[in-house]
Amino acid sequence: MNSLRIEGELTIYRAAELKQTLLAAVAEHAELEVDLSQVGEFDSAGLQLLLLAKREAAAAGRTLRLVDHSPAVVEVLELFDLAAHFGDPLVVGSAQRAA
Prior knowledge:
99 residues; alpha/beta; Transcription Regulator spoIIAA; three-stranded parallel β-sheet; 5 helices; 26% strand; globular
């Protein structure tokens, strides 16, 4: 399984840059895990980007998994009630919850 780690912001300020990187990785790999553990800020533009990547992967018959969700990512996914849409388990350790 190939992996891509997103670090720092997954926000409108980086959406264009990350869109190219993420969609290229989806196109290149039949199975891709996107590590979100180092995402410190996450907004609706970041959410739209993940939705787009998941849709593109499904349309191409590829697998995209989101793993190691940071607290910022979990907060937004829960706010929009979209955790189930992605189909990936949300696991945030007790140390992360306390932060």
